[in-house]
Design goal:
This protein has seven helices and eight strands, in the order E-E-E-H-E-H-E-H-H-E-E-H-H-E-H. The protein is of the alpha/beta class.
Length: about 200
């Protein structure tokens, strides 16, 4: 089976949160570390972090200012073809490791391997996302980054360019796919976990 690398996208501005959400404390550790741990629990071989605020701890954006696409571009620049890249946002703390495992395994099923599927995501959710690192991905990312249309920077458009496939999300997981962009969403997630309502 192909080597699987996890990538935590933590380079956002956190403007709606009012502070760097990647450093919010979740279960006694910074959120970015929680997401790194979650990827390790998912069975990946290694974990990368994207976010300029982390300095040497993280991958630099080669072409900054293009959102998550910049982070993916920076990651694949140092990865060989054939690697499976599992991409997660830093702000989805309730994400189950089982969901990540399901995405990775779906990329490897014979039908998708035969079709050379290069991207898999859950229906109705752009992240997490699994990508196969190859020339098609590199070309699609470079093309999107060179565009003057900011809509081309979206992960959904990248997914469509790669002719990716979607898989259904188990009903019991849907409530755990919450982004925490605001203090209110953060409190909701902590309440769902059963933690005290503190930021």
């Amino acid at each position: 089976m192909a080597k699987t690398i996890g990538l935590v996208l933590a380079g956002g501005q956190s403007s709606r949160m009012g502070q760097d959400k990647a450093r919010l404390i979740w279960q006694n550790i910074p959120l970015y570390q929680h997401m790194q741990n979650l990827l390790h629990e998912s069975g990946v071989d290694d974990v990368l972090l994207s976010g300029a605020q982390f300095g040497r701890l993280a991958l630099p954006d080669i072409i900054p200012g293009k959102g998550p696409l910049s982070g993916i571009h920076g990651a694949i620049a140092g990865l060989p073809d054939g690697v499976c890249l599992l991409v997660v946002p830093v702000d989805m703390p309730l994400l189950p490791a089982a969901a990540c495992k399901k995405l990775v395994s779906s990329l490897a099923i014979p039908e998708n391997r035969a079709r050379q599927v290069g991207a898999v995501m859950f229906e109705a959710f752009t992240l997490p996302l699994v990508l196969t690192v190859n020339s098609d991905l590199r070309t699609a990312v470079e093309s999107a980054l060179s565009s003057q249309n900011h809509k081309d920077y979206s992960l959904r458009r990248l997914f469509d360019r790669l002719q990716g496939v979607t898989i259904p999300l188990p009903d019991e997981m849907e409530e755990r796919f919450q982004n925490t962009n605001t203090p209110e969403e953060w409190q909701t997630a902590k309440t769902a976990l059963g933690e005290e309502n503190t930021v």
